Amino acid sequence: MAVQIRGGAAPPSVAVWNDPRARAIFFQAMALVLVIAFGWYIFHNTYTNLEKRGIASGFAYLNSTAGFGIIMHLIPYSEESSYGRAMLVGLLNTLVVAAIGVVFATVLGFIIGIARLSRNWLIARIAYVYIEVIRNIPLLLQIFFWYQLLGKSLPGPRQSFNILDIAFLNNRGLYVPAPVFEEGFWEIPVGFVIACVASYFIHRWARKRQELTGQQFPIFLTTLGLIVAIPFIAAIITGMPLHWEIPALRGFNFQGGMVLIPEFVSLLFALIIYTAAFIGEIVRSGIMAISHGQTEASYALGLRPGPTLRLVIIPQAMRVIIPPLTSQYLNLTKNSSLATAIAYPDLVAVFSGTVLNQTGQAVECMAITMGVYLTISLLTSMFMNWFNAKVALKER
Amino acid sequence: MKKLTVLAAGAALAIFASGTAMAQQTLAQVKQRGQVICGVSQSLPGFANPDAQGNWAGFDVDMCKSVAAAIFGDTKRVKYVPTTARERFTALQSGEVDFLARNTTWTMSRDTQLGFDFVGINFYDGQGFMVRKDLNVKNAKQLAGAAVCTQTGTTTELNVADFFRSNKMDYKVVAFEKNDEVLAAYDSGRCDVFTTDRSGLAADRTKLKDPNAHIILPDVISKEPLGPLVRHGDNNWGDIIRWAFFAMVNAEELGITAANVDQMLNSPNPEIKRLLGKEGDFGKMLGLENNWAYNVIKMVGNYAESYERNVGTKTPIGLERGVNALWTAGGLQYAPPVR
């Protein structure tokens, strides 16, 4: 008896439990159910046990009054603010150190990476030693090192370094004048925006012209002039609606002005210097991944080493550099949580430190903190993936 | 697949087991383990401080020892777990330690929201300030604009905020996780003021580079009733800690010391007889031997002995008894009778 096969369908004589497709679906479904059941079980068990021991749970505490002070806050915050607001303060402190850190670590990392490949023996060696020393010392130690260095080497407030009578440096931080905006100030940032938009169009026009005629236009100087001049003219017209509040020594400390606290500075230094060492290696490997033929070809076309690097090598190297660069950005952001060791009020120190302790709601605080870090990381990598897709080789 | 299922079931069981096991039978667990796990400060001279050999000593450590003496008749059967201010509550909630003897302030929210029971007050304290002598500050009202070093997650951090806010004074708080970090930052000049409980100030001053260059201001800005605490729900366990402490206070009141406790066994005084287990079944009521209090007094001493040995005027900490004197001497220490 011949088996009838119609259009590739499974033979009807096979039982369901012997059908490989049905089995695959069954086991996948079972695995999914198990994972969900396990997750639900952990959640339920935690919740029941918290309740049984009379430990408060839920998120209502976010609205209660915090009652503690935070040394650095970018948004208005006082002891009367809520725990939720304290979390926001911590989050912004994390973001500001991460954002500034990412920018400077990238700049420094590119310099180091390119210096590492320099034909100048001394420069290449310095970059090499920098990378090997920095990336092999634990970050936490480096943070402590900078913090101790700042704390021990700077004088007290009454013996501050006086910089032109407007800025003061002591072991409480760097005190600089704070801008106080007056009426009509809005015209200056508006002028700045107009200058930026104009620069963009000039840039486009110059490019088109170069493509058509081959003539170059001094873009950099022109746009720089615009961006400085327009806000400046706006400021003169409006009669300088801005004055500076200069810090002054009153009582124990300087009052007024803005202050960069040593905790912030030492954390930022450590993060930049540490991450730049890794970025340097990434940049070096990215550049070395580009065939030397590209350099020779661009020399043959008459380009000098500078433009060769800038216009030929780096754009191609970026394709290799960006994916590992993304993980360095993520690392820097996550490493900023080591701030808690030196009293910089970041998200971890404020929220899963002080708030957790004052409320005792460990599970909720930890869950929120982890959720926030996860969100920051996912957003960063989303952006970097988009950027990567933009610079990737477009195959048509 | 089968392996995976077994693994998942095992993991689930482990979580379940650790979740429910600690509800009522801490004493049984402790007896089975042969050790009390006691959460203490990391290093606070006079209260809980390990020596070069790693032997813990101090006023809070004596609390741990007295519980071990009451249960096992052996003060060595304690495992000390040093905790930071930030870790301590989670350590107790999760069952990592059996109880905390860690200069912790009894507050309403900790007693209710955190699921704890404070069993007594072994040290009446209040928060104070320490400053450098050369600042010429005479009292806390002159501290406007000062940078204040303190520890995160403490009542101290909240009290200092309350104090400056209610006096309409500006301040900068620099909050560290570990007490040693706070002290190092203060010593290096990061802050003008170091604030914590006054007992802690006295203890920490001994650790500074030049203790004599610093003064403790006379102001007391808060009530800090410090005492041991247990998880809410296991009342028998809480009773044991409470009565181990009361035994020491009662012993001082009755004049029983580590040195004379053996003679006191023959005392005709019925109160002494009940405390030392010669009369009645008071140990059994706690689930312990009847000589529980005898062991505590013999091995750790009474309240006064523990106080003078660790933090009293003859020690570097140099604290007067003050409000911690017995009620009969005008203080606040008062223990219910053994009856």
Strand order of the largest sheet of chain A: 1-2-3-8
Which parts of chain B are unreliable, with pLDDT below 50 for 5 consecutive residues or more?
1-22
How much helix is in the residues of chain A? 55-70%
Mean residue pLDDT of chain A: 86
State the shape of chain A.
globular
Q: How many E strands of chain A?
A: 8
Q: Going by CATH, what is the homologous superfamily of the largest domain in chain B?
A: Periplasmic binding protein-like II
Strand content of chain B: 15-25%
What about the largest sheet of chain B? 5 strands, mixed
Number of self-contained structural domains of chain B: 2
- Percentage of residues in DSSP E strands of chain A: 5-15%
Q: In which range does the helix fraction of chain B lie?
A: 25-40%
The N- to C-terminal Cα distance of chain B equals 62 Å
- Would you state the CATH class of the largest domain in chain B? Alpha Beta
Mean pLDDT of chain B: 88
The helix tally of chain A amounts to: 11
Question: Secondary-structure map with pairings?
Answer:
The complex is a heterodimer of chains A (396) and B (339).
Chain A (H helix, E strand, L loop, with lengths): L19 H33 L30 H34 L4 H15 L3 H15 L7 E3 L3 E4 L2 E4 L1 E4 L5 H27 L5 H19 L4 E4 L2 E3 L2 E3 L2 E3 L1 H27 L3 H9 L4 H31 L11 H13 L2 H30 L5
Antiparallel strand pairs in A: 1-2, 2-3, 3-8, 4-5, 6-7
Helix pairs in contact in A: 2-3, 2-7, 2-10, 3-7, 4-7, 5-6, 7-9, 8-9, 9-11, 10-11
Chain B lengths: L1 H19 L5 H8 L2 E5 L8 E2 L5 E2 L1 H14 L5 E5 L5 H6 L5 E2 L7 H5 L3 E3 L4 E3 L1 E6 L13 E6 L3 H12 L4 E6 L2 H9 L5 E5 H8 L8 E3 L7 E3 L2 E3 L3 H20 L6 H4 L5 H6 L6 H5 L5 H8 L3 H8 L29
Parallel strand pairs in B: 1-4, 1-5, 9-10, 9-11
Antiparallel strand pairs in B: 2-3, 6-14, 7-13, 8-11, 8-12
Helix pairs in contact in B: 3-9, 3-13, 9-13
